Amino acid sequence: MVITDPGLLAGRDPVALCRAAVLGGATMVQVRGKDTSVRDLVTLTRALTAELTVPVLVNDRVDVALVAGAAGAHLGQDDVPLAAVRPHVPAGFILGISVGSASEAQRARASHAEYWSIGPCYATTTKPDAGQPLGARGFAALARLAPGVPVIGIGGISPANAAAIAQAGAVGVAVIHAVLGAADPRAAAAAVRGAVLTGRAGGGGGSSGSPIPAP
To answer: From first to last of its 215 residues, what are the pLDDT tens digits of the chain?
Structure first.
């Protein structure tokens, strides 16, 4: 999963960058813009949904996802409770949730999310309030608490450490800087995907049969 970040665009076209990432192997795109206007979020989400061949999710904003025709939304622990959202979204609408601790994992178990995003796995500069890095061992401990749903790793993920997170139980990873901050997003996405596949082949990987493409 590639997550958009306005701070990394540096004037570049986000649709073109995400298209390149998909060509390199990215299987989902999440639109995130904490300080982006609703109008701009809707415009970008609609453009990505129209141009890409993979599911597009929106971070935090279920309303934007619905208006823009996105495949789903990703919610944090402090957002509107997922259970309260579920009755108001169409069948097949993907709802993911962030998990960063054992207590959050326990709350997430009751949310019936389609997937968990566990992190931060490693130190990250794109989310200053992400908390202390879990490492592969900490990720694995939280992944074991997931009630049969896919888990992905997030936070400081790169081709150098993605395999370890996959070995720890992730079906895939979410990246920002590793792909959007690269000179060649297609090659960067391919490198991350290759590392995840290597890690899964070495004994990792999570649940199958879900709407979450892996890796």
So the answer is: 999 999 888 889 999 999 999 999 999 999 999 899 999 999 999 999 999 999 999 999 999 999 999 999 999 999 999 999 999 999 999 999 999 999 999 999 999 899 999 999 998 776 666 578 999 999 999 999 999 999 999 999 999 999 999 999 999 999 999 999 999 999 999 999 999 999 999 865 554 444 455 44
Q: Is residue 27 within 8 Å of residue 54, measured between CB atoms?
A: yes
The catalytic residue positions are 32, 98, 127
Helix axes of 14-23 and 185-201: crossing angle, nearest 10 degrees: 40
Instruction: Report residue 61 as tokens.
Output: 């904003």
Closest CA to 13 of 155, 178, 185, 187: 185
pTM: 0.91
* Whole-Å CA distances, 36 to 155, 164, 181: 21, 33, 19
Q: Look up residue 185 and give its amino acid.
A: P
- The set of residues, in sequence order, having a beta carbon less than 8 Å from that of 80 and lying 6+ positions away, is 62
CATH, range 2-196: 3.20.20.70
